[in-house]
Design goal:
The protein is mainly alpha-helical. It has one domain: Cytochrome Bc1 Complex, Chain D, domain 2 (Orthogonal Bundle), CATH 1.10.760.10. Helix content is 44%, strand content 3%. The chain is built from 8 helices and 2 strands; from the N terminus they run αββααααααα. The protein has a two-stranded antiparallel ribbon. Strand 1 and strand 2 form a beta hairpin. Helix 2 crosses helix 7. The radius of gyration is 18 Å and the shape is globular. The chain starts with a helix and ends with a helix. The structure holds heme C (HEC). The site of heme C has 26 residues, from helix 3, helix 4 and helix 5.
Length: 173
């Protein structure tokens, strides 16, 4: 009995330690930015992530993500990823969805839980205005889910990286 209890306590302690300072509320795991490829930040698993400086300056991709989200997704999903009566709050969804889940729904669409009400998430696989900026929208919503970026347009952002301009030109054609 004693022994079982000790093991249980040790397990709980190990879990807390492995979580570190970060409480897991992110479908892709720890969002900490560990490396940047010309202003595009990645976490330790090479998944795109946000980077917010102590003075509130957000990385360029999060900023673009906000503007693209507002033009392509807001009309259904509400301002700042907060949801509407029509479509779910993506800042909540991101606590559960991984990068791959997100990508699959945005590209392929979804008609599932709300099918009875005829609510549809459109497929965007052919829509360059969405697909060319999918990583930016992902990092913005990830930041919203992790409470790293508040409501509204981020006031300060990092300068536009050259790599972004190049990728945008190539993708938009
Ligand atoms: C025409 C309205 C509409 C637009 C525009 C739209 N969505 Fe959706 N979206 C929906 C609806 C409705 C659902 C719920 C579908 C279901 O679960 O059946 C949904 C679901 C999703 C989900 C899954 C959420 C979850 O909790 O599983 C993601 C991710 C998503 N949308 C991302 C986006 C992004 C990113 C954009 C902008 C590029 C976007 N959507 C634009 C209507 C829309």
């Amino acid at each position: 009995m004693q022994r079982v209890r000790r093991v249980a306590i040790a397990t709980v302690a190990a879990v807390i330690v492995s979580m570190g300072a970060y409480a897991v509320t992110d479908g892709s795991g720890d969002p900490s930015a560990v490396k940047s490829d010309d202003g595009k930040w990645m976490d330790k698993n090479d998944v795109p992530t946000f980077k917010v400086e102590p003075d509130g300056t957000v990385d360029w991709y999060s900023y673009v993500g906000f503007t693209r989200y507002s033009s392509e997704c807001l009309r259904c999903h509400g301002p700042d990823g907060m949801g509407s009566t029509y479509a779910p709050a993506l800042m909540e969804s991101m606590k559960r969805l991984s990068y791959t889940d997100f990508y699959a729904v945005v590209a392929g669409g979804k008609q599932d839980v709300s099918a009875s009400q005829g609510l549809v998430m459109p497929a965007n696989g052919e829509n360059k205005n969405v697909m060319c900026f999918i990583d930016a929208m992902y990092v913005y919503l990830r930041a919203r889910a992790d409470d790293a970026i508040g409501r509204g347009r981020p006031q300060k952002h990092a300068p536009k990286p050259e790599a972004f301009t190049k990728a945008e030109d190539e993708c938009m054609g």
